[in-house]
């Protein structure tokens, strides 16, 4: 299965993956998933947005769903997402080979646009499915070319009218997502998630005045690039001080000409911290420094929250049960957002398994997990499913 | 004439102009110019790249050419370029109405892609015409979509084989370019140029390691955005200290995703100073600070000169003659590059007239010149042409 997916959407020069939601490469992964499920005789169901769950066993009663996502960040790694989907199918294969007969159905899920790399909204599929994001808002989201989600769906023959809270979730009694760990915190092959850090995406719009780069005196300028540059350095410093994370990884400059002082710099801050309070005070500290610098530069800065997710604490009973099944596997929080967090917030009993990441590198072509650890992940997931569906 | 051009390539929201070389809007300006010349019975000649000179009078002997360019920076002002072309036509109209009979031909010129906003090379038309840029190099330049100039020309039915040193220049005995001033240094309606500051464009490539924005510890990162941010602030400070100009106005981020630490930031430095020595020491100071910061960030930085133009000192005899004709008009240098600088370097006796810019704003939708000053510019240009062609 890993070999099947290896080539889809891979940039030959960087080695990274490009699988934005509803793009041809992501669709190819979905096609592959569909084939895998039908070949196994699983009963595949889709909701109006394209979230998929393939059932093993009766679909009359709620069951245990496991899975993850097939989309990627821009130039991302091979493991983030697909590892959870492939491991879910492999775990089902394992249980069937053992002759295990589940008492409740087991579903294998693949949820769309988890990374938000195309439409800017992380966990888009699970947010729409749970209803925390309305169909209207979702359909109006635009990609970087200005294409609204509604048009992207229509082009693929998907009727935007069908988008909304997902009937698939009615039978999701429990959800377990296996995922590659994305830091270096996990030293055993497999661990269990305790929580997802609070996470915010904030758009910083720095506005100044375009001008000639050669003739405008330095002291006459209102250059928003300087305000941005100071803010980027401040964000890094404040995150270090707070034991948190702050990243400016996406930027848009107007007019973006070599010989013009920019009129506007738009920069997206990704900020995460162990608690909601620390996240809020981190944002406040960065904003304050941006505003102070803007006064000095004669520019202005506007901060718009694009998405803010409070802390997700996975239910402790389920978490402890998984850890016990896995011989007291380590329990740890993560700074990365996941569909599991959205489902947990929606009241679905949810847990996560992490597979060790030896370098901690993620969202990068260099993302890696050892094959032995991946196989340990399949073992662990199979054991957990067996326990939950016994 | 001003009203004719006002709407072409204007962004209705910003009010700025988008007239990149060989784009439909720039072509529309060229069409307009062609019509203006033929309507006046001027004899229009083009070279293989699309530089144009329209002659009044015999074309057997070298004459006096005046004019400027019709392309714009991205979201630029109305005056930069077109003012020189419109004033040239208006000055010819004025001289004809007066019954002036020139002893040498007078040419009105429009030179392509002066701003370099599409193919990244300022004064592209004049550089190719004079032979300082070879046809091979020019044709291989690519726009931001990756389209080579050769293909852009072919698409318009222009044979790339015809690109090269321009026969038009053989009859350019003298060149006078009228241009809106681009700083606030000129306090009279019209002035005469003494020199063009040395000017360099340098590409700074900051390379780090892509990683997950949520899970990667701040201390584990190799974030090239931080190295860039410090360099942008350093450039500003060093330019202030040197009485020079340094601008980072164009940026490209890879992968440019909100939730990924960038792997690479490419930033273009536009640097100008009063002398070649100051420009060189400015670049050295900025580069040194970039390299020091890169060591701290665990990133690397590579600096590539894309174009470096030494100081242009316009010939003093011609300059003083113009100033005398204009009742001792002020003489001043400029930080902006112009085709006039390229022609002067190629040994063509060249001068420039500046029209006052009350705010000093240029390369911006807010660029402005008062109508009275523009008319004074036409008067001045007519007087200069009359003197040079008497």
TrEMBL record, chains A, B:
Zn(2+) 2 binds at residues 80, 115, 363. GO terms for molecular function: hydrolase activity, acting on carbon-nitrogen (but not peptide) bonds, in linear amidines; metal ion binding. Keywords: Hydrolase, Metal-binding, Zinc. This is N-carbamoyl-L-amino-acid hydrolase. It comes from the Bacteria. Its cofactor is Zn(2+). InterPro entries: Amidase_Cbmase, Bact_exopeptidase_dim_dom, Peptidase_M20. Allantoate binds at residues 201, 259, 272. Binds 2 Zn(2+) ions per subunit. Zn(2+) 1 binds at residues 69, 80, 179. The lineage of its organism: Bacteria, Bacillati, Actinomycetota, Actinomycetes, Propionibacteriales. It holds the Pfam family Peptidase_M20. Belongs to the peptidase M20 family.
């Amino acid at each position: 299965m890993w070999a099947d997916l290896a080539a889809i959407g891979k940039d030959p020069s960087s080695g990274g993956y490009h699988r934005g939601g509803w793009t041809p490469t992501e669709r190819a992964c979905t096609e592959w998933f569909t084939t895998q499920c039908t070949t196994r005789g699983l009963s595949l169901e889709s909701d109006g947005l394209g979230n998929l769950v393939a059932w093993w066993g009766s679909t009359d009663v709620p069951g245990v769903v496991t899975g993850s996502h097939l989309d990627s960040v821009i130039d991302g790694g091979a493991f983030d997402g697909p590892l959870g989907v492939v491991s879910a199918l492999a775990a089902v294969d394992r249980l069937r080979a053992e002759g295990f007969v589940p008492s409740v159905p087991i579903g294998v899920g693949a949820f769309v646009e988890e990374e938000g790399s195309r439409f800017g909204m992380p966990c888009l599929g699970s947010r729409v499915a749970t209803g925390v994001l309305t169909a209207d808002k979702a359909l109006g989201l635009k990609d970087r070319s200005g294409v609204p989600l509604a048009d992207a769906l229509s082009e693929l023959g998907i009727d935007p009218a069908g988008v909304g809270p997902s009937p698939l979730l009615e039978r999701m009694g429990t959800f377990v997502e296996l995922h590659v760990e994305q830091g270096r915190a996990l030293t055993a092959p497999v661990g269990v998630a305790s929580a997802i850090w609070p996470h915010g995406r904030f758009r910083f719009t720095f506005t100044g005045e375009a001008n000639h780069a050669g003739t405008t005196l330095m002291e006459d300028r209102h250059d928003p690039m300087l305000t941005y540059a100071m803010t980027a350095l401040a964000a890094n410093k404040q995150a270090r001080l707070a034991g948190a994370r702050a990243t400016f990884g996406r930027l848009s400059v107007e007019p973006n000409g070599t010989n013009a002082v920019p009129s506007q710099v738009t920069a997206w801050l990704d900020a995460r911290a162990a608690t909601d309070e620390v996240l809020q005070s981190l944002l406040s500290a960065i904003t304050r420094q941006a505003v102070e610098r803007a006064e000095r530069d004669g520019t202005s800065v506007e901060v718009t929250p694009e998405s803010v997710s409070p802390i997700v604490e996975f239910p402790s009973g389920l978490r402890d049960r998984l850890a016990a099944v896995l011989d007291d596997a380590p329990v740890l929080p993560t700074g990365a957002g996941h569909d599991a967090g959205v489902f947990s917030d929606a009241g679905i009993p949810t847990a996560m398994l992490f597979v060790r990441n030896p370098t901690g590198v993620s969202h990068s072509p260099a993302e890696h997990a050892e094959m032995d650890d991946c196989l340990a992940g399949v073992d662990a997931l199979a054991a957990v499913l067996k326990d939950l569906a016994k």
